[in-house]
Amino acid sequence: MFALDTITHRLKRGCETMAYPDGPPPALPDRHGGALRVDATKCVDGCSACVPVCPTQAITRPSGVPVALDLGRCIFCTDCIAACPADAITQTRDHRMAVRRREDLVLGQPGGEELRLAGVLDEKLRRIFGRSLRLRQVSAGGCNACEADTNVLGTIGWDLGRFGIQFVASPRHADGLLITGPVSQNMRLALQKTWEAVPDPKIVIAVGACAIAGGPFVGHPQVCDGAAAVVPVDLFIPGCPPHPLTILDGLLRLLGRLENGEHRVASGGQEGQAASR
After folding, report:
1. What is the domain-level CATH number for residue 91?
2. In this predicted structure, what is the pLDDT of residue 132?
3. What does the alpha-carbon distance between residue 119 and residue 182 come to, in Å, rounded to a whole number?
């Protein structure tokens, strides 16, 4: 009787897994503004109001450049938006932020006016992985926010397994690592050994500001300022924490599961001209 009630209840609820990426992506919540946009042409000469308010030194004024914003360091606190008198830094509501190269996360500099989204793995790796991915998640000193949003992808609404992506218990069963946290000194050796235990060829994905650049702990002697100081990183997914949609978008682009997976996105959040990687 209990089993029949359970089956009946499930039939009444129907399919609760979102249609994305076949359908439109779910809307970001109001508290999540998505990627930031930098319009250096609006910067007032001599103005540096946004620089001192950034808690992670993500905003700088390099020589000859009005302003540069490092999305890898950014914790999306929006203090810079409130401090800027010219509205040169704004939110885009765009969930897409994953990139293959660390330097692609720096906006505002020449050549960095647009966010170059992650392209697919090379042909050899795609052939080996077979458009699927087994990942060992490593929390290297994280606060559990990025870990929580990663775990959300395994719930019924997201159903990460339908894309052939799964988290595994052992690095020896994995194709790569998904790392969160700033990599504390106590986790450095553990991360190195975990990476060495993954059979070749392998990939590394850094999720969140901490795993990319140290986050709010950047520069502290007890952290390594991100995973790249210990292991080579193949995909950077910024955020503090990144929305589950941002994480999923990055993973699908890496596997070539999204249309036009290799392209530039204008800093205003609209797709630009396709660009091969």
Report:
1. 3.30.70.20
2. 82
3. 25
Cβ neighbour number for residue 140 with a 10 Å cutoff: 25
Tokens of 61: 């004024």
CA distance 192 to 231: 7
Angle at 56 between CA 219 and CA 264, to 5 degrees: 115
Q: Find residue 106's DSSP bridge partners.
A: 70
Q: Within 10 A of 20 (CB to CB), how many other CB atoms are there?
A: 14
CA-wise closest residue to 34 among 86, 81, 97, 109: 97
How does the average pLDDT of the chain come out, rounded?
Answer: 86
What is the number of structural domains in the chain?
2
Q: Is the dihedral of CA 179, 181, 184, 187 positive or negative?
A: negative
The residues, ordered by sequence, that sit 6+ positions from 132 with a Cβ below 8 Å of its Cβ are: 163, 164, 165, 166, 255
Amino acid at the residue 81: I
- Mean pLDDT value across residues 152-169: 93
What is this structure's pTM? 0.87
Strand partners for 205: 178, 235
Helix, strand, coil distribution of the chain in percent, nearest 5: 30, 20, 50
Residue 132: CATH number of its domain: 3.40.50.12280
Helical residues (DSSP H) of 102-243, grouped into ranges: 123-129, 145-152, 185-197, 209-213
Q: With cut-offs at 50, 70 and 90, classify the pLDDT of residue 112.
A: low
The reply to whether omega before 241 is within 30° of 0 (cis) is yes
Find, among 159, 152, 130, the residue nearest to 255 by Cα: 130
Is residue 1 pLDDT above 70, yes or no? no
Statement to judge: residues 248 and 147 lie in one domain: yes
Name the token pair of 19.
Answer: 């249609």
